[in-house]
């Protein structure tokens, strides 16, 4: 029996794979993943956070805690208009790809997600929320916004951003049809489980994905790193979540690609037909203090 691949653009996908410091090796791996996605008819592919050059190898004790990285250990810096993203864009062709890198503006480093296609860089997002000492080596981004792509209107978040509903909501209000949250989400540092499946940070990762998709009624792509890097062990669980909060495809605890064939506009229309959360918001009832309040002091020892 002869089988054919579905047309390009009828599926979305999120990757779980390990990436280190060798950028040429990373790009070769990205090319293989894009080829795999193309054969599956994928029009929008989310790769992991820091897949160009790797993530930090350890997270510190907190915003005022020690961090074991040295400058020589840090991810290589790249320009948003540099050769690395040009190579990824060439590989992407007609596909839209969300890719993670350490961006430099010539002065500061940013943990960045770039949205690219064969036309080049369509948009980018600098990670706003920084966990566990990440702020010692990266500056924080300052906002959220979507871009129009061949795969529809897409917004990007990075890892810890997903723990804050305001970011995903800002993208949804900006018209996001799909939100790609790319991650290097590790297992818990304390009270850790031998089983990634039962680790409490795995549970949080999965809960955030379902909640952010459901509350905003968007298609949600959650990519993640796989395996270990330095002292970090990643929870995997790349997935595609529908606008009803239902997991349509997942890699579970393994490496791979979660692919879901999906009519995105049709899925959104169905989810929003009766109760449309964005329409039914009451912004005038929400206190402005939500945006301006001073951060609360941590309770206890701050361990995660």
UniProtKB/TrEMBL annotation:
Classification via SUPFAM superfamilies: Carbon-nitrogen hydrolase
Pfam families given in the database record: CN_hydrolase
Keywords: Hydrolase
CN hydrolase domain segment(s): 8-264
InterPro entries: Aliph_Amidase/BUP, C-N_Hydrolase, C-N_Hydrolase_sf
Name the record gives this protein: Apolipoprotein N-acyltransferase
Source species taxonomy: Bacteria, Bacillati, Actinomycetota, Actinomycetes, Propionibacteriales
């Amino acid at each position: 029996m002869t089988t054919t691949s579905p047309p390009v653009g009828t599926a979305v996908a999120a990757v779980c794979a390990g990436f280190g410091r060798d950028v040429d090796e990373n790009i070769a791996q990205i090319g293989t993943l894009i080829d795999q996605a193309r054969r599956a008819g994928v029009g929008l592919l989310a790769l992991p956070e820091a897949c160009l050059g790797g993530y930090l190898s350890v997270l510190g004790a907190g915003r005022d805690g020690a961090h074991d990285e040295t400058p020589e250990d840090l991810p290589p810096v790249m320009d948003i208009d540099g050769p690395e993203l040009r190579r990824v864009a060439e590989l992407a062709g007609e596909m839209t790809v969300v890719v993670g890198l350490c961006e430099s503006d010539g002065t500061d480093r940013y943990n960045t997600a770039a949205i690219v296609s064969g036309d080049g860089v369509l948009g980018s997002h600098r990670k706003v929320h920084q966990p566990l000492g990440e702020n010692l080596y990266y500056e924080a981004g300052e906002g959220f916004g979507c871009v129009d792509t061949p795969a529809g209107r897409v917004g990007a978040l990075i890892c810890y951003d997903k723990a804050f509903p305001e970011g995903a909501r800002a993208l949804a209000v900006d018209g996001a049809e799909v939100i790609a949250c790319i991650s290097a989400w590790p297992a818990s540092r304390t009270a850790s489980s031998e089983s990634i499946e039962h680790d409490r940070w795995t549970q949080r990762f999965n809960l955030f994905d379902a909640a952010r998709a459901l509350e905003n009624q968007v298609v949600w792509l959650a990519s993640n790193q796989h395996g270990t890097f330095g002292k970090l062990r990643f929870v995997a669980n790349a997935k595609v979540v529908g606008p009803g909060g239902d997991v349509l495809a997942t890699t579970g605890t393994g490496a791979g690609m979660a692919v879901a064939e999906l009519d995105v506009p049709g899925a959104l229309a169905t989810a929003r037909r009766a109760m449309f959360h964005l329409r039914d918001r009451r912004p005038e009832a929400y206190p402005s203090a939500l945006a301006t309040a001073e951060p609360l002091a941590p309770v206890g020892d701050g361990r995660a």
